[in-house]
């Protein structure tokens, strides 16, 4: 599927059990008006500026926080509940957040961004698809721009959200190594307890794309 960010939402094809899992959660959170930022979103927020892409935006909490700080945001996700909520909230609050329903396993961006964020998405894809999507995201960051990427890594024992779909637990060093040549602003590992005494292990990288020598001199 090729889909630009011309805001013509396309019906996401069956994007997998990960989406069903979250769609139900987002309906509940929207009903309860639970719009808190998670710890990864809180860490990302100070780095966002200008034109921002939230790739796997969930309920859009980070997108709205960024828009309230002056960013113009494109928010993409395959959850119909999330995208419907974001559109309704953006209109109600007159904030520059544009949302589109998209299966991000196969999505072509047609614009470059000052900042791209992908928190908790790529592990829902098989590994080759996740690595390809990450490369695609990185290619659409402007020179000097920021990427914030967070994934589950090996050591994660809570896998219920993946259902029968394929998934990708990155190796511990994989994410940072894929930002080789970038200026790494932060690279962190964090563990969270999950139901049944199990564990979720995350890697989070915040990195700045290098400027070309010509741009630095100008
Ligand atoms: C762990 S949630 C993260 C949401 C948000 N970034 C946050 O930090 O709260 C994972 C998100 O990935 C989305 N997702 C999973 N598979 C997807 C796919 N194939 N295409 C687009 N979104 C997908 C889910 O709908 C959900 O919003």
Walk me through what this model shows.
The protein has 218 residues and is α/β, with parallel strands linked by helices. The chain has a single domain, classed as Rossmann fold, CATH 3.40.50. The chain has seven helices and seven strands, in the order ααβαβαββαβαββα. It has a seven-stranded mixed beta sheet with strand order 3-2-1-4-5-7-6. Helix 1 runs parallel beside helix 4. The longest helix has 15 residues, at 17-31. It is globular and about 50 Å long. The termini are far apart. Residues 1-13 have low confidence and may be disordered. S-adenosylmethionine is lined by residues 15-16, 18-19, 22, 38, 40-41, 56-58, 77-79, 82, 103-105, 119-121, 124.
- SS-based structural class? alpha/beta
Distance between the termini: 39 Å
**CATH arch. level architecture:** 3-Layer(aba) Sandwich
| Total strands | 7
- Each distinct ligand: S-adenosylmethionine
Strand portion = 25-35%
Name of the CATH class: Alpha Beta
Largest beta sheet: strand ordering? 3-2-1-4-5-7-6
Helix content: 25-40%
- Tell me the name of the CATH homologous superfamily: Vaccinia Virus protein VP39
Shape: globular
What is the radius of gyration computed over CA atoms, rounded to a whole number of angstroms? 17 Å
